[in-house]
Specification:
There is one protein chain. With 311 residues, this protein is an all-alpha fold. The protein has one domain: Mitochondrial carrier domain (Mitochondrial carrier fold), CATH 1.50.40.10. It has eleven helices and no strands. Helix 2 runs antiparallel to helix 4 and helix 3 runs antiparallel to helix 4. The longest helix is centred in the last third of the chain and has 39 residues.
Length: 311
């Protein structure tokens, strides 16, 4: 028998009287645990994409922990947005879409993913822009970079890339939650799969779903990063931020560039390298599963140790 229901079985958010405290502590634990691994790889993948060079190139790993503190702070504030929205969506949105509107379980899963992804993309983008701007200069500091962005463009630099971020995270969320629902139905509900530790099966389902979602959403991630890079060039040259190329325009340009390759296989390889499809599944897919595991375990830990009664 399974020890506990596996996501995405509808679950309740924390019933602790101080839910915001539980969310904050859980997200802080998750952020601190993953920063030492994720920051160097995140920076290397971003620089490899905008400069069109291999991820493992030495130049991508100069000052690898640049912005580690800012990343932890950002994740403490917004890093758990996806998981909080996921929890709340399972309780309020899933029953509405799946049962009351007769959409079924799949529609409920996709709705939760859309809600969680859009929330994460919109709320997390402003602070992420500071990180991307600073990463283009290995000696840049975050607070001076943020002040310079405000000085030269006010909100325009901070809001740059928001539609692409929301689109990418929404697509990722729908694919992630939809895949989790599918695998849960096939491996747990239909087959009644025995598992000595449900957490292991949980992690496997989340990893597989995260890998699929990250591969299919990677073209949108490419477009978003290119938009950020255009803004970085404007800030570097102290010129006004002009309207950015749209996501469809950037992807059309990339596809046209791939036609220069001689064979279909070479074109696919070109597109895969441009979109970091060889590395994003490792970082985003595995990282998402590990983040969710740490976040959920941290919630259980803090719920059990913090007083349940208000004074």
């Amino acid at each position: 028998m399974l020890k506990r229901p596996l996501p995405p079985e509808p679950t309740k958010p924390t019933e602790h009287p101080y839910p915001l405290l539980i969310y904050f502590l859980s997200s802080s634990t998750q952020a601190g645990a993953l920063t030492i691994v994720s920051v160097p790889l995140d920076k290397a993948m971003y620089l490899s994409q905008i400069h069109r060079r291999p991820v493992l190139r030495k130049a991508n790993f100069i000052a690898p922990y640049q912005g580690s503190l800012q990343t932890v702070v950002q994740k403490c504030i917004f890093g758990s947005t996806y998981f909080i929205a996921q929890d709340e969506g399972r309780v309020h949105l899933f029953p509405l879409m799946a049962e009351h509107l007769n959409g079924g379980k799949t529609v409920g899963d996709l709705s939760v993913g859309l809600f969680a992804g859009a929330s994460n993309g919109i709320l997390g983008n402003p602070l992420s822009t500071v990180k991307y701007h600073a990463w283009c200069d290995d000696k840049a500091k975050y607070l001076p970079t943020a002040r310079e962005m405000w000085k030269h463009g006010r909100w325009t630099f901070y809001l740059n890339g928001t539609p692409a971020s929301a689109l990418r995270d929404s697509l990722f969320g729908m694919l992630y939650e939809g895949s989790r629902g599918f695998f849960h139905q096939k491996l747990v509900v239909s087959q009644q799969t025995p598992c000595p530790d449900s957490r292991l099966l949980d992690f496997g389902i989340n990893s597989t779903s995260g890998i699929l979602a990250s591969i299919l959403s990677s073209p949108i991630n490419y477009a978003r990063n290119k938009q950020h890079h255009h803004a970085q060039q404007a800030l570097k040259n102290h010129t006004p931020l002009k309207p950015q190329p749209s996501t469809p325009a950037l992807l059309s340009s990339l596809y046209a560039e791939s036609k220069k390759e001689k064979t279909p296989l070479a074109r696919l390889n070109f597109l895969a390298n441009a979109c970091n499809m060889k590395w994003i599944p490792l970082r985003v897919g595995g990282g998402m599963a590990l983040s969710q595991f740490i976040y959920e375990e941290a919630k259980e830990f803090y719920e059990a140790r913090l007083p349940m009664k208000k004074p």
